[in-house]
Design a protein that fits this description.
The complex is a heterodimer of chains A (116) and B (110). Chain A is mainly beta. Chain A is built from no helices and eleven strands. Chain B has no helices and nine strands. Classes of the chains: A mainly beta (116), B mainly beta (110).
Chain lengths: 116, 110
């Protein structure tokens, strides 16, 4: 069974940093693109970033370019999102998703709240 | 303002049929596959339809998808109260080099 478990969310002040992790199991992690997708409270889905199987290609939504970095460790079957210079508008539930376009498996999400 | 346009809400009675539209452009739906996701209250999204009209294993055939030009459509027949959820379309946008989603449609089963 495919499982994706996010962690690392929490409350952070504007301008602060946070690192999200996603632990994958139940499939060959190194064979898939992976993505982060977020959902602000009461709002719709927004794709944030994705990363190729070997980490050689990464893409970001314009609003996080230069602030967020996606990475992966295939040996640890883990996906990461380093978030710097956080803003109030980054407040959201962040989902890790297996990315085959479509996103065929999702984690349960981790809440990031940016507030002073 | 989403690049893909969905109606904010739709409603129908149990047992009836409903369709949800997703309108885009040539840079997204017109040249890429459409997928559909169901998000039940308080849960993570779940894939319902991929590659315009294919259902993952375990998704009942009450759910169907289609695409014509720059629009996609999700159909749900035999509505059940358990179908009450938010539904999102998604695709790749070649101009933005980004995955995009519609704004979501809230389905109410009256």
């Amino acid at each position: 069974e495919v499982q994706l478990v996010e962690s690392g969310g929490g409350l952070v002040q504007p301008g602060g940093s946070l690192r999200l992790s996603c632990a994958a199991s139940g499939f060959t992690f190194r064979s898939y693109w992976m993505s982060w997708v977020r959902q602000a409270p009461g709002k719709g889905l927004e794709w944030v970033a994705n990363i190729k199987q070997d980490g050689s290609e990464k893409y970001y939504v314009d609003s996080v370019k230069g602030r967020f970095t996606i990475s992966r460790d295939n040996a640890k079957k883990s996906l990461y999102l380093q978030m710097n210079s956080l803003r109030a508008e980054d407040t959201a539930v962040y989902y890790c998703a297996r990315d085959g376009l479509p996103f065929d498996h999702w984690g349960q999400g981790t809440l990031v709240t940016v507030s002073s | 303002q989403s690049v893909l346009t969905q109606p904010p809400s739709v409603s129908a009675a149990p047992g009836q049929k409903v369709t949800i539209s997703c309108s885009g452009s040539s840079s997204n739906i017109g040249n890429n596959y459409v997928s559909w996701y169901q998000q039940l209250p308080g849960t993570a999204p779940k894939l319902l339809i991929y590659e315009n009209n294919k259902r993952p294993s375990g998704i009942p055939d009450r759910f169907s998808g289609s695409k014509s030009g720059t629009s996609g459509t999700l159909g749900i027949t035999g509505l059940q109260t358990g179908d009450e959820a938010d539904y999102y379309c998604g695709t790749w946008d070649s101009s933005l080099s980004a995955v995009i989603f519609g704004g979501g449609t809230k389905l109410t089963v009256l």
